[in-house]
Amino acid sequence: MSNELQPARRGLLLVISSPSGAGKTSLARRLITDNPNLWLSVSATTRAPRPGERDGGEYQFLGAEAFEAMAMRGAFMESAEVHEHRYGTPRAGVMDALAQGRDVLFDIDWQGAKSIAAAALSDTVRVFILPPTMADLAERLHSRAQDSEAVIARRLARAKGEIEKWSDYDYVIVNDDVERAYLELAAIYRAERLRRNRNRWIGGFVEGLVAEPI
If we measure between CA atoms, which residue out of 163, 176, 39 comes closest to residue 109? Predict the structure, then answer.
């Protein structure tokens, strides 16, 4: 392919979900680090920052009134209530990225994934991360020491209901080995980037090939 040919492509929306503690965030952050064309969608939330989190980094932290005002303006691509807090994806930045050929990663729950797919089905790729066992999930939640026992108990109580949404997703990965799970996620992303409908330059490239004298 010549340097003069500038491939035009449409971005994709890579949605990663899992019950809390199954490892989706660690996998997502690594994929972002390894792929400079992949942009992490920063959701707005009404929950308080956890230790080490900063506003505009992991989340945009908003008060309940500010969040509601954005929701009333239709500023969210999706929004949901999870574990007594509200979360939402600002619409404008995501749609701009798609049009510019940039890929957007969403680290969100099944409710948000459903809304993203409804808003942009042909652009959306959904991946669900499963824990190997419920005991492993409980151990991970306790080992990260970020939540109280009461919060952990609520997360575990809801986990099975979240896991039951697995069939709504295009791909499912069992995170029993972090390295293998990451390689599978990276392979999914690479393959989805190569889909014909996302690479609009191919039609013109093929026309040029056919027109070349032999």
Answer: 163
- Judge whether 79 and 41 are in contact, CB under 8 Å: no
Of 45 and 152, the one with more pLDDT: 45
* pLDDT surpassing 60 at residue 78: yes
Q: Is residue 143 part of a domain?
A: yes
The answer to whether residues 105 and 41 touch, using CB atoms and an 8 Å cutoff, is yes
Cβ pair 118, 110 in contact under 8 A: no
Domain that holds residue 159: 13-199
Report residue 76 as tokens: 């969210």
Tracing tokens 């999706």 back to the chain, one arrives at 78
* Number of structural domains the chain divides into: 1
Q: Note whether residue 138 is domain-resident.
A: yes
Q: Is the entire prediction scored with pTM above 0.70? A: yes
Q: Report the CATH number at residue 66.
A: 3.40.50.300
